[in-house]
Every structure is written in structure tokens, then in C-alpha cells.
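Project outcomes to date are best conveyed with an example. Our students and postdoctoral researchers have been running inverse folding experiments weekly, and each run begins with a structure described purely in C-alpha cells. The record below, which covers 520 residues, was selected by the lab manager from last quarter's runs and is presented without edits.
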């Protein structure tokens, strides 16, 4: 862009120069005909250059009309040159040499198409002067036109060379020289453009950060050549797993980023799991995932969120020494949080259900490690709703039978999503059966009583209690007292009596500590 701005300045001063030389030529040949007309034409060219110099060149070169402006300016100059040559006697005039100036000027920065068009008009303009007035022999005019055409061809060739050089430099400035993927600058430009497009067209997408866990150890033990080979293998492997529309960038060292355009959050989670599984044998990695627009619409915000979840993934993954299950893959909870936001931005349903579920399980004698897994299952129990359209999930009125069937699919969808996360195998059936009723009237498999995992029975009671006491699209929140009555009324049919009793006991104990009336 700066080069095109400089081109305007050079073009203006070049016009001043040849107009000055032209006025001198007119003065020295004043005895010939049409001198006042020639002087006026040179004056018109000077005024046009002054007008161009006053235009906001930065705005012009950054607008979509940039090429139209430069081409129009050159064509006007070409028309003036043709008029000057005609007024000075035709092709025999020394002014005919100015025909070369616009072509040479265009070769400096004009794109190939503009150079070819302007060059063709230049040759056609000279031939039109030759045909209209003549001035010299046909042989001379033919030779002049041939040399002018050769200049056009050379200018077009040079314009093409400039284009290839710019493309090569652009590619080099945006590509990691070792792995061949995008570098930080290239990835950020691509990501910003995709996020902008997604915002305009109301699309989803995701950014995934990936950090090799033991890369320094590889360098120390096997040398930097082996480390470089591993980095190249990682990029090649990522490209094999990803779609052609996805982009891989190396942000530095052993840190990579993946752009997943037009990707739903649920699909992004599956892709992240697939990538870590594919890389696990040769290059175990920590992963952080951020989705847009749910986690933000600015690249910095998304990278920050993904980095936080990458850190949690690294330090929350199961190791031989053991880590609390509740710390595992905290970035996966983003999907559950996204569902909460869609239903009610002011209430974190999943985390509330987790608190109630842990309280019920503690009352039933669960151990600390089991409570951690239950808390994670409660946070993710509704994760399958990411695939449910907003028109159904947030519908203010009663659902149709078809819409209800779509809603019922979320428990199996959620279990399938969680099945792709290493280390969470235990909670998969808990999530799948979290909507089974004690009397067998629930879904998806119609299980009843003890056939339903106890964790699922706990989740159903906790989920129902929070659903009743929190606002929904179709009604306002109900009181805690009303929710307790509903649980007792359906105890033994929809709900496990033991789970209901444990929750009511917990609520009574909480009320004894804080006697303030609890109304959701």
C-alpha cells in the first residue's frame, strides 16, 4: 500500500516534468502551427496532476476502487498524449515519444491486467494517430508501433514478475520455514479473517492450542535434529487428520494452533480428542479449546481462554501419581457452560446441579474420589444439548412431539461426546441414563429402579430440583418449598426415594444453618 501511495507522488512529479519539457518544446517551436493549443493541452495535464496531488491518496490506495483510479488516470494521460501528437503534426512529432511513458510507469506497480489493458490502448492510440494524420512513412510508423508493442510486452512481463515476487514474500512472511505450516503472523491473520466472517454470517468455529508435553526431553536426549523431525511429523499428522479448510500454525517452539472454521462446539471437542489420540504415541500433547462466538469474538480473548484450558488439560490429566478427577480436562466444561448461557445467561445450571448431586451422594455415603467423578458428570450431563437448535432449546411454549424427541436425544449425544475424552469412561453411562425414571418411563432405554446407575438417579433429582427453582424460557422460577413438594410427589415413580430423601435432608440442614427463606 505504501508503494502505491508513493506511485501517486511519482506519477504527479513525472507529469510535471514532461509537461515542463513540453512547454519548453512549444516555446522553442513557436513558429510552427497549433502552438497555443499545445500549450493549453500541457497546461491541462499540469492541472490534472495538481488535482491528483490534492486527493487523499491513502484512502484511494486502500479502497476497492484503487485499480480503477490508477487506470482512469493513465487513460486520461494517454488521451492527452494522443491529442498532443495529433496537434503537433502526427507521428512525425517528437511528442509521440511520450507514448512510452504511461506504459513504463504502469509496469512499476500496476497489476498485470491493468498493464495489458493500458498497453493495448497505448498501441491502439498510436495507430489511431498514424491512421488519422500520419506524418511519416508506413515503415517508420510500423517500426515505432512494433517497438511500442515490445515495450508493452516487457512491461507486462515485469508486472508479472513483481506479482510473483510479492506472493513469494507474502508466503515467506506467513510460513514457518521448518514445518511449512503458518507462522504466528500467518495464523493470526487467517484466524482474524475467519472470526470476522463468522461474526457477520452467524457461524460457529473454534481455535485449538496444542503444546507438546516432553519436547525439551526429546531435544536433550536425541538432539535438535530429532526435535525438528518431530515437529515436522506433528504438522504432517495434523494435516492428515484435519479438513482442508482447517489451518495449522506454529506459534513458537513446540506450541501449535489449529483453526477450525464453521465447526460446532460438539464437533470441535471430537476433533480435539481425535488429534490428541493420534499424536499420543509419538508426541503426547496438552490441548486447550476455545469456541467462537461463545468464548469471545476477539482472537486475543480466544487464545487466552484456550491457553487457560491447555494448562488445565496438562495439569489435570491422569498421571501415575494420580490427580483429582474434577480437575480433568476443564476445557470440556466449556460446552456445558455454553448450553447454560443459551438457556439463561444469569444462571449456571450445570454447576448448580453438580452441587446438589454431590450433596445427595454425600448423604448416601459416597467416597471423596467418587464425588469428584460425580461432580464432573453433573457438569457435563447436559453437554449433548449443544446439538439442539436454539428454536427448541429456548422455546417459550410447549414442545411438539417431534421437538421433544430431538430433546430426548441429548443424553445419548452427550454420552457419545464424553466417550471421546480419555479418562472419563466411568461417567459415560451416568450421563446416558441421567433421564431414566425410577418406574421405567424415562429415556433413552427405559431402565427402572436398580438397573439405573445410582449416579444417574442422583443426577435426575439434582437436575429436576434446579430446573424447578431456576427460571426457564416458558416460566418463572418456583420456590424451594414447591420444588420439594414436587420431588416428594413423584418419589417412587420418576425419582429414586432414597435420592429425594437425601436432598431434602441436605436442604433441611442448610435451612437450619441459614434460616432465611430460600426462594429461587
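After processing, the design step wrote out the following sequence:
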Amino acid at each position: 500500500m505504501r508503494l502505491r501511495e508513493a506511485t501517486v507522488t511519482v506519477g504527479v512529479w513525472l507529469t510535471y516534468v514532461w509537461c515542463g519539457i513540453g512547454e519548453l518544446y512549444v516555446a522553442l517551436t513557436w513558429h510552427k502551427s497549433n502552438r497555443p493549443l499545445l500549450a493549453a493541452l500541457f497546461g491541462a495535464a499540469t492541472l490534472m496532476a495538481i488535482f491528483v496531488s490534492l486527493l487523499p491518496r491513502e484512502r484511494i490506495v486502500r479502497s476497492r476502487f484503487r485499480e480503477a483510479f490508477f487506470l482512469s488516470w493513465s487513460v486520461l494521460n494517454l488521451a492527452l498524449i494522443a491529442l498532443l501528437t495529433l496537434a503537433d503534426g502526427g507521428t512525425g512529432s517528437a511528442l509521440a515519444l511520450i507514448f512510452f511513458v504511461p506504459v513504463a510507469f504502469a509496469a512499476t506497480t500496476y497489476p498485470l491486467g491493468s498493464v495489458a489493458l493500458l498497453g493495448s490502448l497505448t498501441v491502439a492510440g498510436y495507430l489511431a494517430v498514424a491512421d488519422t494524420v500520419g506524418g511519416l512513412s508506413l515503415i517508420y510508423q510500423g517500426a515505432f508501433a512494433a517497438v511500442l508493442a515490445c515495450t508493452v510486452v516487457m512491461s507486462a512481463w515485469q508486472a508479472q514478475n513483481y506479482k510473483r515476487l510479492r506472493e513469494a514474500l507474502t508466503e515467506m512472511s506467513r510460513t514457518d520455514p521448518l514445518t511449512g505450516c503458518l507462522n504466528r503472523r500467518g495464523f493470526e491473520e487467517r484466524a482474524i479473517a475467519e472470526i470476522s466472517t463468522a461474526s457477520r454470517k452467524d457461524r460457529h468455529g473454534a481455535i485449538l492450542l496444542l503444546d507438546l508435553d516432553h519436547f525439551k526431553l526429546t531435544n536433550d536426549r536425541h538432539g535438535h535434529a530429532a526435535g525438528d523431525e518431530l515437529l515436522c511429523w506433528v504438522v504432517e499428522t495434523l494435516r492428515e487428520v484435519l479438513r482442508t479448510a482447517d489451518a495449522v500454525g506454529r506459534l513458537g517452539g513446540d506450541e501449535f494452533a489449529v483453526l477450525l472454521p464453521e465447526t460446532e462446539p460438539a464437533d470441535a471437542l471430537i476433533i480435539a480428542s481425535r488429534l490428541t489420540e493420534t499424536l499420543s504415541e509419538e508426541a503426547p500433547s496438552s490441548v486447550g479449546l476455545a469456541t467462537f462466538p461463545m468464548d469471545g469474538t476477539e482472537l486475543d480473548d480466544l487464545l487466552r481462554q484456550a491457553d487457560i484450558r491447555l494448562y488445565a488439560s496438562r495439569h489435570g490429566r491422569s498421571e501415575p501419581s494420580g490427580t483429582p478427577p474434577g480437575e480433568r480436562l476443564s476445557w470440556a466444561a466449556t460446552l456445558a457452560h455454553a448450553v447454560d448461557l443459551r438457556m439463561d445467561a444469569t444462571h449456571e445450571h450445570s454447576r448448580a446441579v453438580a452441587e446438589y448431586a454431590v450433596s445427595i451422594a454425600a448423604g448416601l455415603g459416597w467416597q471423596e474420589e467418587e464425588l469428584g467423578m460425580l461432580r464432573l458428570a453433573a457438569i457435563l450431563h447436559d453437554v449433548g444439548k449443544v446439538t439442539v437448535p436454539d428454536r427448541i432449546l429456548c422455546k417459550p411454549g410447549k414442545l411438539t412431539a417431534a421437538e421433544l424427541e430431538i430433546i430426548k436425544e441429548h443424553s445419548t449425544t452427550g454420552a457419545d461426546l464424553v466417550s471421546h475424552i480419555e479418562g472419563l469412561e466411568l461417567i459415560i453411562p451416568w450421563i446416558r441414563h441421567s433421564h431414566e425414571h425410577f418406574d421405567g418411563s424415562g429415556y433413552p432405554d427405559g431402565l427402572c429402579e436398580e438397573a439405573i446407575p445410582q449416579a444417574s438417579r442422583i443426577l435426575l433429582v439434582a437436575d429436576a430440583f434446579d430446573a424447578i427453582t431456576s427460571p426457564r424460557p416458558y416460566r418463572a422460577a418456583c420456590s424451594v418449598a414447591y420444588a420439594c413438594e414436587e420431588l416428594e410427589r413423584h418419589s417412587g415413580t420418576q425419582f429414586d426415594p432414597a435420592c429425594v430423601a437425601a436432598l431434602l435432608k441436605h436442604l433441611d440442614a442448610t435451612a437450619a444453618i441459614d434460616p432465611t427463606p430460600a426462594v429461587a
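The radius of gyration is 37 Å. Residues 316-330, 513-520 have pLDDT under 50 and may be disordered. The training component of this project remains on track.
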